[in-house]
Design brief:
Blueprint (H helix, E strand, L loop, with lengths): L1 H30 L7 E10 L5 E12 L2 E3 L5 H4 L4 H22 L6 E5 L10 H11 L7 E6 H6 L1 H14 L2 E7 L5 H7 L4 E4 L12 H15 L3 E4 L5 H10 L3 E2 L8 E2 H13 L1
Helix pairs in contact: 3-4
The structure holds ligand C2E and calcium ion (3 copies).
Ligand C2E binds next to β2 and β6.
Protein name: GGDEF domain-containing response regulator
Length: 278
C-alpha cells in the first residue's frame, strides 16, 4: 500500500508538472501572438426576437497557432495572469471596431458590436484611450459599441471597475453585464452599476421544459431588469422552445446556435453584408 501511495504521488506530481510546463509554453507562445498576427475574431449574430433581424454581432477571439484554432477558454485565462491580456485586449478592440467601421462605410450603419472585456484590462492605463482612438479612427458612433463585463469581474475590484466603466460610458459606449445569473450577487449589481444591458447566461437556458423553475428564474430576472430600465439579451438559445421562452419572458435580443454559431468575417460578409447588397 505504501509503494502504491508513492507511485500515486509521483503520478500526480508528474501530471502537475506537465500541466505547468504546458501553461508556461502557452504563456511564451502568447507573447508573440499579436505581433505574429495569430489572433482572429469570429462574430456571432445577435437577433432581434420580434422580427428575427440581425441587429449586431459579438466579437469572439480565436488564436490560430500551428494550424490549429485555439478557443478562448484555453488561453484567455492564461493571458490574464500577465499583462499579455492588455495588448491582446487592445488588438481585439481595434479589430472589432475596424470591422464595424468597414460595415458602416458600406452603408450598414445600424449593427452593434459587442466586445468582451477582461477585468484585468481595467488596469491597462491605455484601455480608455485605445477605445477612444479606435472609435475616431474608424469613424464609428460610440453607441454602436457595447462592452461586455462579467459579474465576477466587477466584484473583483469594485472601485476600479466603477472608474473604468464610468469612463467608457462617458465616451458613449454601452455596457453589458455578461454571464448574468451565474453569480449570486447579481441583483445588487444591477443597482450599483450604470449598465445598459444584461446578458442572461447560457447555463440558464433550460435543458428540458419538464421543470418550470428555470422558466420562473428567467421570467423573474427579465421582469426585474426591465423595471430598472435595462435591456435583456439571452445567449445559448439552441431550440425553438428556448426561443418561445425568450419571447414569453420579454427578452429583446438573442444569440445562439438556433440562429447561428460564431462565424469568421468572410462568412459574415457573405451571408449578411454582400448578400443583402445584391
Ligand atoms: P461568453 O462571452 O459568455 O461567450 C459565449 C460563448 O458561448 C462563446 O464561446 C460562444 O461561441 C458560445 N455560444 C454561442 N451560442 C451558443 C449556444 O447556442 N450554445 C452554446 N452551448 N454555446 C454557445 P467562445 O467563443 O468559445 O468563448 C468562450 C468565452 O471566452 C466567452 O464566453 C468569453 O468569456 C471568453 N472570450 C471570448 N472572446 C473573448 C475576447 O475577445 N476577450 C475576452 N476577454 N474574453 C473572450
Ligand atoms: Ca460575452
Ligand atoms: Ca456567458
Ligand atoms: Ca463567459
Amino acid at each position: 500500500a505504501k509503494s502504491l501511495g508513492r507511485n500515486r504521488y509521483s503520478f500526480f506530481q508528474k501530471r502537475m508538472e506537465e500541466q505547468l510546463s504546458r501553461r508556461h509554453q502557452i504563456e511564451k507562445d502568447l507573447e508573440t501572438a499579436v505581433e505574429n498576427n495569430e489572433l482572429l475574431l469570429y462574430f456571432q449574430p445577435v437577433i432581434n426576437v420580434e422580427n428575427e433581424n440581425v441587429v449586431g454581432f459579438e466579437a469572439l477571439v480565436r488564436w490560430k497557432f500551428k494550424e490549429k484554432i485555439v478557443p478562448p477558454d484555453e488561453f484567455i485565462s492564461i493571458a490574464e495572469q500577465s499583462e499579455a491580456i492588455w495588448s491582446i485586449g487592445r488588438w481585439i478592440i481595434r479589430e472589432a471596431i475596424a470591422v464595424l467601421g468597414g460595415w458602416n462605410a458600406l452603408g450598414y450603419a445600424d449593427y452593434s458590436m459587442s466586445i468582451n472585456l477582461s477585468s484585468v484590462q481595467f488596469k491597462d492605463p491605455e484601455l480608455v484611450s485605445c477605445i477612444e482612438t479606435c472609435i475616431e479612427t474608424f469613424n464609428v458612433p460610440a453607441f454602436q459599441v457595447e462592452f461586455e463585463i462579467t459579474e465576477t469581474a466587477l466584484w473583483r475590484d469594485l472601485k476600479e471597475s466603477r472608474r473604468v466603466i464610468g469612463k467608457i460610458r462617458e465616451l458613449g459606449c454601452r455596457i453589458a453585464l455578461d454571464d448574468f445569473g451565474t453569480g449570486f450577487s447579481s441583483i445588487s449589481h444591477l443597482q450599483k452599476f450604470p449598465i445598459d444591458t444584461v446578458k442572461i447566461d447560457k447555463s440558464l437556458m433550460p435543458g428540458s421544459f419538464d421543470g418550470s423553475k428555470d422558466i420562473a428564474i428567467i421570467m423573474g430576472l427579465v421582469a426585474m431588469s426591465k423595471m430598472l430600465g435595462i435591456d435583456v439579451v439571452a445567449e445559448g438559445v439552441e431550440t425553438d422552445a428556448h426561443l418561445s421562452l425568450c419571447k414569453a419572458a420579454g427578452i429583446t435580443r438573442i444569440q445562439g446556435y438556433l440562429y447561428s454559431k460564431p462565424l469568421c468575417k468572410d462568412t459574415i460578409d457573405e451571408l449578411y453584408i454582400f448578400a443583402a447588397r445584391s
